[in-house]
Amino acid sequence: MSSSSTTTTTTPSAAPAPAPTTSETYTGSCHCSRFKYSVTQSPPLTDPSCEVVECNCSICARNGYLLIYVKDSDVVFEAGSEDEFKKYTFAPKHAIAHYFCPTCGTSCFAKSTDPGFYGDVKAVNVRTLAGFDLKAVRVKAVDGRSV
Ligand SMILES: [Zn+2]
Q: What would the DSSP string read from start to end of 22-71?
């Protein structure tokens, strides 16, 4: 796999500095590449302190999501835009929109439909990202089915 991910370390501009934060930017896409994006995640996906969420609820199980939660501003589109995704919500709450490519069907993101509830956060399906070893991530099982 070729990857253009880079490791960056934020340099404190003023003393006293907090512990340096390491982040990594991953490139991702849907299968047909209509959508291409980069996602900056801190800590890096394979860092022992990073947890990737695997949920057993009806939609996550079907889509095979492995999710991280990042700010909208940490997702940058190279091709396509957020508005061009097909969005799926379901009863009774329609609380979460599931973003998939209308061409190839890849499930890339999920996002709250309520701007007041984590409105600036995207759940990113790390299965759509490149540049890391999926087997090296720490997966946290979440029992969404019981919620
Ligand atoms: Zn696609």
A: EEEEEEEE-TTSSSEEEEEESS-TTSTT-EEEEE-SHHHHHHT--EEEEE
Q: Report whether the peptide linkage leading into residue 48 is cis, meaning its omega lies within 30 degrees of zero.
A: no
Domains and CATH numbers, the chain: 22-138 (2.170.150.70)
pLDDT tens digit sequence for 52-108: 999 999 999 999 999 999 999 999 999 999 999 999 999 999 999 999 999 999 999
Cα(98)–Cα(85) distance, rounded to whole angstroms? 9
Distance from the alpha carbon of residue 37 to the mean position of ligand 1, in angstroms: 12
**How many residues are recorded in the chain?**
147
Ligand 1 centre and the CA of 47: distance in Å?
29
- Residue 102 C-alpha to ligand 1 middle, in angstroms? 7
DSSP assigned state of 113: S
Count CB neighbours of 110 within 10 A: 25
